[in-house]
Amino acid sequence: MYEFESRARRSGFNLVAGVDEAGRGPLAGPVVAAAVVLPADYRNSEIRDSKQLSSKKRDEMYGILINEAVSFGLGVVESSVIDQMNILRASLLAMKEAVMNLSSGIDFLLIDGNQGIDLPIPQQTIIDGESHSISVAAASIIAKVSRDRIMEIYHRQYPQYNFINNKGYGTEEHRRAIKIHGCCKLHRMSFKPVREALSISLLDDTE
Q: How far is the C-alpha of 80 from the C-alpha of 124, rounded, in Å?
């Protein structure tokens, strides 16, 4: 979990940021990215891919990370923009915004996935980066917790979709709610399951 950071610092880079996103798959809500700079030689064996942690543990690690990180930044791209540019480009935009919201002086990026970010900063992509880089794992935790909290706020505006539990993902309950209530402004209309659920709803209305 520490080799990529160590290798970057041996190459002369001082402020290394890990970058990851949360929310590529949901049918509703934003995609959220985080960029995190940890102190040199930072160690914490409990930091790992956010998907491997319980909600309670993610919240605990989130509190630790925002206090112990040198810097962290968030990028949020809403569903309307996702529909305009597709989810891959929206995810990369969120990552770019997260990096731009870091304090100045970042000189190297470790990015989850196989797509670089359009910024003039040296960078390395890492497939399954959350499992191989502590900085990327930290970013995955901050991105996931931040997005979950956004969806909890949206739940209060649109309780009929139960975003507090499904976080916008395409659960059976969520798809059924779309069929019954239609879509709200948070839904990603470019996603096939949303269009299909909505078309069924419209068909039912005409019968």
A: 29
Q: Give yes or no for a contact between 176 and 162, defined as CB atoms under 8 angstroms apart.
A: no
Note the helical H segments in 44-171: 55-68, 79-85, 87-100, 134-157, 163-166
Reported pTM? 0.94
Sign for the CA dihedral angle at 60, 61, 63, 67 comes to positive
Closest CA to 72 of 2, 142, 154, 150: 142
Tell me the one-letter amino acid at 85: M
Task: Number of helices (H) and strands (E) in the chain: give both, helices first.
Answer: 8, 5
Distance CA 204, CA 196 (A): 12
Alpha carbons 124 and 18: distance in angstroms, whole number: 10
Report pLDDT digits (tens) over 151-197: 999 999 999 999 999 999 999 999 999 999 999 999 999 999 998 88
**What distance in Å separates the CA atoms of residue 37 and residue 138, rounded to the nearest whole number?**
9
* Cβ–Cβ under 8 Å, residues 32 and 126: no
Integer CA distances (angstroms), 28 to 3, 46, 67, in order: 36, 30, 30
